[in-house]
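Hey,
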Amino acid sequence: MLHQFLRPHSSLLLVAGALALAVSGCSAEGGPNVEVTSLDQPVALPEWSVFLNEARRIGRNGEVYYIVEMDIPILTEGELAEYYQERLKGTARKGVAHLYNGGDDVWLNDDELRLRYCVDTGFDAAPAGGRTTAEMIAAMETATTAWEQVANVQFTYDPGNNGNCGVASPIPDALYIKVSRDDTQNGACAFGPQSHANWTCAGLDGNTIGVNDSSFSAAAIPGVMMHELGHTLGLHHEQFHTQGGGCTASGVRDVTASVDLISIMGYTSGQQACALTTPGSVLSPLDGWTMRTFYGMPAAWYVAVL
């Protein structure tokens, strides 16, 4: 689906174009600047040394990034080489995505920039040792900021609606997310952007992140919320990756070429002996890459070419 990869917003289009690789797509003769029409089709590219030499760079926080597909940054030369090989083969898909109606279950029409959320005051009624509403608010701030820093998504906190944020509360609109206490769950669960289906657990409406109040420590809950927000943005569990995750599932597709053992979307335990042994408690570099393939990079990343 081409829209996932070429999505700089109009106000950034000129800047993004200036940052694009000179060889984002090439003709059989090796000429530059041929429009990429499908990332799932093999393309003719110049020799690797030429491709590397002509790659444009941007600078951010002291790091140098390569730019491909108009707005997807790549940090290392090794990752750029992986991308190069995937483009040659027509397999340039960068996590594991949930599918819906034949495409990736992601937000469309810039809806990912208009997401709002509340946090259930019911967390404060939890038994001793459970997470408080204040802890959940802080965890969501950490989690939303983490995703906003690596991809062009935006979450707005709506504290005025916290008192109407329980499992049974109605949502104001389809772009609204309720973070609700739900002790019937074994842990936490979320939903897909277009499908609004709770495909990680059952029993909740399609706009609720349900969290068992006492299942997670205060230290763990920010990572848990990063994981659940990954679902709300379109990612499935990394252990379903066919290149080493060990699980099998229908309705998903690989996004990265290989399994990401430190993905925030992995589990340390699971069914079918398919758990990842080293999932992260923060976003991995490939978590950010995957999300940028859907939504592009944050506006703050559009900086002067070095």
